[in-house]
Amino acid sequence: MNQKPIIALDFPSKREVKYFLEKFPKEESLFVKVGMELFYQEGPEIVRWLKALNHSVFLDLKLHDIPNTVKSAMSGLAKLGVDITNVHAAGGIDMMVAAKEGLIAGTKTGEKVPELIAVTQLTSTSEAAMHKDQLIEVSLQESVIHYAQCAKKAGLDGVVCSALEVSMIHEATEEAFICLTPGIRPKGSAVGDQKRVMTPADAKVIGSNYIVVGRPITQSENPYESYLSIKKEWNGE
Length: 237
Ligand code: C5P
Description:
Layout: E1 6-8, H1 14-21, E2 31-35, H2 36-42, H3 45-52, E3 56-63, H4 67-79, E4 84-88, H5 93-106, E5 115-119, H6 127-134, H7 140-153, E6 158-160, H8 166-172, E7 178-181, H9 200-206, E8 210-213, H10 215-218, H11 223-234
Parallel strand pairs: 1-2, 1-8, 2-3, 3-4, 4-5, 5-6, 6-7, 7-8
Helix pairs in contact: 4-5, 9-11
The site of cytidine-5'-monophosphate (C5P) has 13 residues, from strand 8.
């Protein structure tokens, strides 16, 4: 097995991304995550550029709007050739179905439809805040499971979740339902603002399908070395 950890390109502009990627061998094909910070500065061109460099792209824009708008937006994102993208499950089943339809419509014949995953409850949302702000009365865990099941029903490929939620989500859906997990820290690295973290090796054991790693690679003195060591651990080598 040779799975790539997804590197979160949390940089303000292409200039910083370019500087960062120069620390990797040219021929090394990576899997990177582009989020709102970078996308809203550089626009779709940043995705085209990364794809042209032979990298896979998880475009983390967390769409949440009326079904028709999300469908059209997704069709455009599929045309960029993204490999994974996402929506908020709170947008509802109809919106998620429309998102998937948009991705299928925008994918060139013969190419793979991007994987579509849902955000359940943001990990920054506490149970108390969920009760107060969203008037959801069940526990945070029940809400996460409910959203994961809605995503599955809508035909999505999986969810973004904390590594600590993977087993319960796989149990409530199916083993093949993707659990993409951020909050990954190799032993001994700084936790930063992440509250609940897991090592790449433990994430593998509990069944994460993809891991997203940002600062332990982007802020490292030697990003390529850190990447290789995380990749090795993630692949159980
Ligand atoms: O630097 P770090 O490894 O903490 O970066 C994790 C990445 O995953 C960031 O881009 C962050 O926004 C994202 N993320 C997260 N927790 C979530 C969802 C996304 O850390 N629940």
